[in-house]
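Got a spare moment? Tell me how you read both lines of this record:
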Amino acid sequence: MEMAGQERPDHPLFPLEGPNYKPSPGDLGTLQGLQNAVSQVVARVRHPILRLRLALLLEEVLELSDACLHEDLVMIARNIADILYVTHSFPHSLGYDGNAVYDCVHQANMRKQMGKVRSDGKQLAPLDFKPPDIRGVLKRSRQSGSN
């Protein structure tokens, strides 16, 4: 899949043998603090479907954070796949076509390639950039009854 302004390395950045890095107690404390903050946010979400989906997604992001701290490519790959799985099911549970929204955002992001690149590598939108019409995609999704 083509990604705006991103090149894929010829080889994985980390070996498959296992973790390259042992996190410090401070790193683990930061993850615990992040987990506590996430739990507080999730608890404030009133709608049960949104609360469940958000909790699942953030749980996977926390697991990915831990895998990244350990520089464990196998766990990074697994957690990214879990995030994609949970993310892909989120729109379906809300009754809209997530693929159509993704396609709309992807097309808009590909147009960002005409913009400047920030010093940290983030692709910036050009001055004439038009954001994706998510509302229009959702309306068409509802009218067609697809999800």
